[in-house]
Amino acid sequence: MPTEKRYYWLKLKRDFFKRHDIEIVEAMPNGKDYVLFYLKLLIESIDHEGTLRFSDTIPYDEQMISVITRTNIDIVRSAMKIFEHLNLVEIMDDKTIYLKEAAKLLGCESYSAERVRNYREKQESLISALHCDHIVQKSDEEIEIEKERELEIDKEKESKADKPPRKRFSIPLVSEVEAYCKERNNKVNAQHFFDWYQSKGWMVGKNKMVDWRATVRTWEQRDGDKPKSQTITERMAGM
After folding, report:
1. What is the pLDDT of residue 154?
2. How far lies 75's CA from each of 13, 34, 130, 150, in Å?
3. Model's pTM, two decimal places?
4. In sequence order, which residues have a C-beta less than 8 Å from that of residue 63 and are 6 or more positions away?
5. Which of 26, 76, 97, 126 has the smallest count of CB within 10 Å of its CB?
6. Cα–chain center distance at 238
7. Domain boundaries, the chain
8. DSSP letter string over 127-159?
């Protein structure tokens, strides 16, 4: 069964040219040529996991390396000595050239994996384009409806902000009712008022009492309207 085709590449870090060994090489006379030559060696070695050899029986010599990397032979001779000295390159016993960091920088991908990756990228791009197109092609009616809805929401917020918060009813103490009646100088019996609405669950007719002071004033008014007859407070006192 044939071996599936694979793709290889080098993963250089952003700080590659800031490494001390690379900075030292680049600072030398012809240093930029040395660094370029080193990168060419790395690229040549990616199909062989960091090793360079013409064949199983024939190793590369300096002339051959000069040809395949299109580098001046003098640059090749000088650079290889520097690379060995800085431990960037190792010449093995059988003359195989081994670039130690190539294995760490090596990335690979099978042909089928590349096709799947490309397909997924195209699908994601298509979905993104369709989404953008849908947004762009909204009808004038849809845009107008959205604007009206936004205006309604703004009006509701403004209306709620303008309305004062509704006071929550709390059952008064008899002493509070009594003090209010004295302040009003009326004839409402505070205890009878309290007992009456306590028995009614503080309901006024079918509605929950909102303001007991207003209810006291109502009692006061009704008693004032009947000066010759028995007042509401007096009638309830006799119950």
Report:
1. 72
2. 25, 7, 55, 72
3. 0.43
4. 73
5. 126
6. 73
7. 6-107, 174-237
8. HHHHHHHHHHT--HHHHHHHHHHHHHHHHHHHH
Gyration radius of the chain over CA positions: 47
Place of tokens 């060419």: 40
Q: Which two tokens stand for residue 33?
A: 């040529």
Choice between 94 and 152, residue whose per-residue pLDDT is larger? 94
Give the pLDDT band of residue 47 (cuts 50, 70, 90).
confident
Q: Judge whether 84 and 39 are in contact, CB under 8 Å.
A: no
Spatial distance between the Cα atoms of 35 and 25, rounded to a whole number of angstroms? 7
Contact 50, 102 (CB under 8 A): yes
Place of tokens 């947004």: 135
From residue 40, alpha-carbon distances to 7, 65, 185 in Å are: 17, 10, 107
CA distance 196 to 184: 20
Give percent of the chain with pLDDT exceeding 90: 31
Q: Which amino acid type is present at position 150?
A: E
Q: Which of these, 51, 133, 62, 143, lies nearest to 97 by C-alpha position? A: 51
The dotted CATH code for 6-107 is: 1.10.10
- The answer to whether the CB of 18 falls within 8 A of the CB of 35 is no
167 φ, ψ to 5°? -70, 140
Identify the bridge partners of residue 97 per DSSP, sorted by sequence position: 52, 91
pLDDT one-digit tens code per residue, 186-202? 889 999 999 999 998 99
Round to whole Å and give the CA distance between 151 and 156. Answer: 9
Q: Would you report the helix, strand and coil content of the chain in percent, each value rounded to 5?
A: 60, 10, 30
